[in-house]
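Researcher: Re-running this chain for the archive, since the previous output was lost when a drive failed. Same request as before.
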Amino acid sequence: MRRRRNELRKSAIRYWRREVLRLAQSGDLEGARRAFSMFQKAVDKAAIRGTIHPNKAARLKSRLAAKAFGG
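Model: Regenerated structure tokens:
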């Protein structure tokens, strides 16, 4: 049961990461920002619930923001 929930949480993280990158590359920055918000929510939820380490959550958010929005 726990394994399945963890898989779903990680799957959501991967989905929203791909969606942010796809929207950013297509030039839809507003859509990418909305998707990034959903990505952050999924990552934070996984970190709070113990699916991923909090430092990994911070690293994922930081790297995706830099890749999708520059800087």
